[in-house]
Every structure is written in structure tokens, then in C-alpha cells.
Amino acid sequence: MKTTTLPRPMAVQRSQWARRLRWRWPSYLLRVVVFLLAIAGAAVMLLPLAWLVSSSLKPDDQLFVYPPVWIPRYLNWPNYVNAWNYAPFAMYLTNTLIITVFSLIGTLISSSLVAYGFARGQFPGRDLLFGILLSTMMLPGIVTLIPLFLIFKALNWINTFLPLIVPSYFATPFYVFLLRQFFLGLPRDLDDAAYVDGASTLQVLVQVILPLAKPALASVAIFSVTFHWNDFLAPLIYLNDQSMYTLALGLYSFLSEHTAQWGYLMAASTLMILPMVVLFFFAQRTFIQGIVTSGFGGR
After folding, report:
1. Tell me, what DSSP letter sits at residue 9?
2. 216 with 182: CB under 8 angstroms?
3. How far is residue 261's CA from residue 248's CA, in Å, rounded to a whole number?
4. Spans of the chain, pLDDT less than 50
5. ∠ CA(178), CA(181), CA(183), 5° rounding?
6. Long-range contacts (CB closer than 8 Å, 24 or more residues apart) made by 58-64
7. What per-residue string of b and e applies to 188-205 under the rule 16 or more CB within 10 Å gives b?
8. Distance between CA atoms of 167 and 181, rounded to whole angstroms?
9. Is the distance from CB of 298 to CB of 187 less than 8 angstroms?
10. In Å, what is the CA distance from 207 to each residue of 119, 121, 152, 228?
11. DSSP code of residue 242
12. How many other C-beta atoms are found inside a 10 Å radius of the C-beta of residue 133?
């Protein structure tokens, strides 16, 4: 005989709902507080960017007024065209792309090789060498600036792109650490299966490990591109000829030579950071995945 379940009285359902709410409201309140803090932090971080974009579209008479004008009375788009033509930004962009692309290639190749050696290699003193490598991250870059400058000067590399590109081919400790942690999270059975099939160590790295490490490689690539794209100190030290200036150095030169053209400077600065914003916007999921998964590797 088929039995039917009668609906619970409304009072009982309300009592259960109130009991659940009483137990869960602290977690709901915590989520709301975290959400509000995230919105406040995002607003603080985006405020300078919003001011930059707004100023790049303002006419000259609205740049330094008080109270500040966030939305200009009309969008002065010619600021971007005039800024691009006012200084050789096309040449600066080409130089920056050359340095960024070749440095990215060197970073990915060298850091992957070194990280794979520390993750899979079995040799005496491996942990000691890895500790020494990580200890170099504690040295401020300004400490090694003068010795590096003397080395590059002895090699006649001053006023060339070589001091900005060649160091990337000798592995960066932070990127090595990031990739090593990710490699440690991959099962060794993959390596063993490839070795059984007759693959060499380099083939295992290129054909087995690196295809699985795309999130970590994407994170390293974004870090490398952002660093070399925005780098100001190294080009300032090693480059003397204006025809070799990067975008960051070109903006500084533009500011020192044309102090009255603030609208053009804001437009040029917006154009400079726009590729980085677009890059992170499209690669943020892969970037975050690579950062998160790189911190949970076993041994």
C-alpha cells in the first residue's frame, strides 16, 4: 500500500528555518565583512588608475582644478594621438618589446631546466644548493647593482640590450622556486613511464612535464613580462642613447623635457599600462591557478 507524506505544519518549518539561521548567521556576517573589505581594497587600488585615465582625457584647464574633476566635460581623445606623435614612443615600444620577448624566452627555458633539476634530480647537496639559491632572494637588487655594472662594463655591454636580456638566461631564483613546487606536485610515475618508453631526461621535461605545467609557466611568464615591461632602474643604468630607451625610460625623458604637457603624459602612461591590464585580464584564471597549485607540492 502506497503511503503519502503529509506536509509539515508551517510553524514547524519556520522553527527549523529560524534554528538554521541562528547557527549560520555568523558565517553569513563574516562573508559580508570579507566582501566589503575586498570591495574597499579594490577601490583603493583602482583609484589611481581611474584618475590616470580620467586625466588623460581632460582638457588642460581641468587637470589641476580644485575640487578635482573626475569626469571631464568632454573627452579629449586627441591627447592620445598627440602624445604618441610628440615623442618617439613607437621606437620606445619596439625596444621594450625586444627586451621583454627575449627575456621571457630566457626566463622560461633557464628556470624550467633548473627547477626540473631540483625537483627530480637526485644528487649530493641538492637541498643545500637549493637553499643557497633561495638565499640570494634576500639580497636587495641595489646591493649587486655596482658589481653587475662593473662586469657588464668590462664586457663592453653598456649601452646595449645585453645587460637587460642575458641575466634572464641564468634562471631567476623566485621563478625556479615557483616551478619546482609545481613539478614536485606531479607524480613521478609519469617520468618512469616515459623512461620505460625510451625517453631521455630532456624529452621527459619537454614532452611530459612542461605540458602539464602550463599554469605555472603562465604565472612565470606574466611575472617576467610585467617586470621587464615596467623596469625603469636597469635601463636607466645601462642605456645612454635615447634611441635605445624603453617605454619607462622614455616616459621619464618626456616628463623632464616637456613638463607642461601633463595631458599628453597621462595619455602616454595609459597606453603603457594598457597591455599589462589586458594581459592580466585574459590570463588571470591561469595565473591564479598557477600561483595556488605551485604552493602545494609534495616530495
Report:
1. P
2. yes
3. 17
4. 1, 4, 6, 296-299
5. 110
6. 58/263, 59/263, 60/262, 60/263, 63/262, 63/263, 64/262
7. eeebeebeeeebeeeebb
8. 22
9. no
10. 16, 17, 36, 28
11. G
12. 18
Q: Among 297, 19, 60, which Cα is nearest to 183's?
A: 297
Q: How many helices (H) and strands (E) does the chain have?
A: 14, 0
Asked if 193 and 274 touch (Cβ cutoff 8 Å), the reply is: no
Q: Which of 222, 216, 107, 101 is nearest to 172 (CA)?
A: 107
pLDDT tens digits, one per residue of 50-74: 888 888 888 777 777 778 777 887 7
Region for 101 from its dihedrals, namely left if φ exceeds 0, alpha if ψ lies in -120 to 50, beta otherwise:
alpha
Tell me the CATH number for domain 79-293. 1.10.3720.10
Phi, psi of 259 (to 5 degrees): -70, -20
In the block, cell 635605445 appears at 244
CA distances from 76 to 58, 72, 136, 262 (A): 6, 8, 48, 13
pLDDT for residue 296: 43
The rounded radius of gyration (Å) of the Cα atoms in the chain is 27
**Three-state DSSP class for 121?**
coil
Task: Count CB neighbours of 284 within 10 A.
Answer: 11
Cα separation, 267 vs 197, whole angstroms: 57
Euclidean distance between CA atoms 205 and 207, whole angstroms:
6
In single-letter form, the type of residue at position 125 comes to G
Q: Which three cell numbers stand for residue 16?
A: 527549523
Per-residue cell: 115:
627547477
Q: Which pLDDT does position 291 carry in this prediction?
A: 61
Phi, psi values for residue 289, rounded to 5°: -60, -40
**Can you read off the three cell numbers belonging to residue 224?**
617576467
Q: In the numeric block, which cell numbers belong to residue 26?
A: 555568523
pTM: 0.79
